[in-house]
Amino acid sequence: MEVIESIQMMADYSQNLRAKGHTIVLVPTMGFLHKGHLALMEAAKAHGDKIIVSIFVNPAQFGPNEDLDTYPRDMERDLDLCRDMGVSVVFTPAAEKLYPQDFQTYVELTRLPLHLCGLSRPGFFRGVTTVVSKLFHIICPHTAMFGEKDFQQLVVIRQMVKDMCMPIKIVGVPIVREADGLAMSSRNAYLGPEQRADALLLSKSLANAQKMVSQGEKNVREIIRQTKQILLSCPDMRIDYVSVCDPDSLDDIEQIHRPALLALAAILGKTRLIDNCMLRP
Ligand code: AMP
Q: Labelling 107: which of 148, 166, 180, 208 has CA 20 to 30 A away?
């Protein structure tokens, strides 16, 4: 497995793979890898013969009061996991190289970021789309893998690729959960034991909503009311949003007649957690 830090060397390496007829699949990550990331790598194997994982904690997607400095990191462990997964290259660019002093070009969507996480994290999706398009330009993958855990991110990236005519296939991978239902996340490392137990309310509230819909409930207001009630049964939980929306446009819906996305974000202590599921009538 190669570990490449230099942007130029990564670009050259990728072009060389392409020239030799290899099919490249990119898995972009911020590191501190867990089974959710590994599922992306495993799924990547079905889409190409060379898997490239990028590990980069992207400063452009963190707000001024967010956790850029404390974001968990463990490069040695991450590299071991990538090696075990049969990854060909891990790309670990330095922030000063991706964003040099004179950097001034951003990629920004006009509408999709005005929903869900984009509302409480202004600039977040601009940072995501900017770094992902830089990675796409450097690596020129045939396919890139994204988790449904960050459902809005997946929708945003699909739209960017379509709008910018990028010849890259975007593949979504289902959410990987802990045995008890908590969606895996690098940020779960911030949770103390009590918070870890309370965090289960997120997946529990989603399961409750899915049960309501399977029993015939179509009224989104009622689904949201019960979902919030379950989350707020923990006094330390603050809700950012609970939304039922169209999975493509992310526009709110009032009645469930087609598959709809139930997405939520909540803050437990200082940790912001997100989760989602599809509601299928
Ligand atoms: P991150 O390192 O948090 O930026 O995540 C990198 C990629 O892994 C993103 O496409 C995420 O959506 C995906 N991912 C993170 N956690 C999970 C999970 N629990 N299940 C599936 N995909 C995930």
A: 148
Q: What's the predicted TM-score (pTM) here?
A: 0.98
- In ligand 1, the atom with minimum distance to the C-alpha of 146 is 10
Low-confidence ranges of the chain (pLDDT < 70): none
**Residues having CB within 6 Å of any atom of ligand 1:** 29-30, 36-37, 39-40, 146-147, 149-150, 173, 175-176, 183-186
Q: Is residue 37 annotated as part of the catalytic site, yes or no? A: yes
**DSSP strand E in the chain: where?**
2-4, 24-29, 50-55, 89-91, 143-147, 169-173, 237-245, 260-268, 271-279
Angle at 26 (CA atoms; ends 68, 73), nearest 5 degrees: 30
pLDDT digits (tens, 9 = 90+) for 14-70: 999 999 999 999 999 999 999 999 999 999 999 999 999 999 999 999 999 999 999
List, in order, residues 6 or more apart from 105 with CB less than 8 Å away.
130
